[in-house]
Amino acid sequence: MxxxxxxxxxxxxxxxCSGPNPLTQCTQCxxxxxxxxxxxxxxxxxxxxxxxxxxxTLGSCQNCHSDCNxxxxxxxxxxxxxxxxxx
Length: 87
Prior knowledge:
The chain has strands at about 15, 25-30, 35-40, 45, 50-55, 60-65, 70, 80. The protein is mainly β. It has 2 domains: about 1-45, no CATH class; about 50-85, no CATH class. Strands 1-2 form a two-stranded antiparallel ribbon. A two-stranded antiparallel sheet has the order 3-4.
């Protein structure tokens, strides 16, 4: 909602937000579209390359486990999609 009380859409990379700025006002990101939430330095969504996830501790994209094409984190049980015909 803007200052006039009019509802606004969240940025395309956010599934929930507190305002229209994708770099500072996302509260939840579209993980299935490849966006990862990071709270530092500000609330926002970050998109890494395929086979990577955003590590908020390191502040950068990191490689997924080798079993994953896309992932939420570094472990083999954090795959969104699997690599090499695995399920």
